[in-house]
Input
Amino acid sequence: MSALVLVAIALITYGSRAAAVVLLPRPSPRFEIILSRIPAAIFASLATATLLGDGGALAAGPTLGAAAGALVVSPRRSLLLCLVGGVVGYATGAWLG
Amino acid sequence: MFGTLYGAAARGVLGVPLTLVSSLLVYSGALQFALVALLGAGATILPLVLTTVVLNLRHLVLGAALRSRFESGPLRRALLAFFLVDETFGFAIAAGNRAAPRAVGAVTERTLLFAGLTLYAAWLVGTVVGVLGGGLAAVEGAAGAIFPVLFIGLASLAATRRSHAVRALAAAVLTAAVALLFPGLRMLAPVVAGVLVALPGRDR
Output
């Protein structure tokens, strides 16, 4: 990634923050509901994408173990717990593999 | 802590200067981790920009909720906007809710600024420690495992309703299907799947 792309990403990010705070009216309730659904879906998709390589090859055992560990504790909705679960899963995966 | 993880994980993908500049200018943990994961998987500019746009859409909702409480002028609001992240939004709204009715605007703005500066400083220091920390070789070696764990954690935090979790699961399945059937679209799939599953139906 070049510095120019990074600056563009920074500008898009700041613009999205400033748009509503400084310029835009509040989104419609329907649009707000749709927007609220997007982050969880994208993060779950990104998690999947990082577990799959080219051609659908699965990640290494410790990485799969880490993901499984995080998934197990994810209903608790704590990032710290997910990290702990991931570490335990990673160690378990490495031990088994 | 998360800044340190980011610095350690991003150093090998972005290099030291861009890793530091990314935290300085972007200041968005979720987005920065997503970009590094995409870059590490060989993504081109289009998926990077699309992911940036779509992940930032939520700022419109957060900003709109804060805007109705702010009382200061556009310049001060433009400054405060830089510190709008998920965590500072939560702090600011909670502080405003506890304030007396006449003080809601001032308390919300002050909390956003104070929390934003604190988290920004912590994020920058953490990134520097992660980038420079020679003792973090183990973390760097496990960087491939950090991303799915973080994204699962972020998804669980973002899923405030059961239907969000169901949609997240559907998006994960859709992404896996696209990655298997159309390998060339693998890094575009998360954005497309995330938006597609968000559109239909009602929340429960």
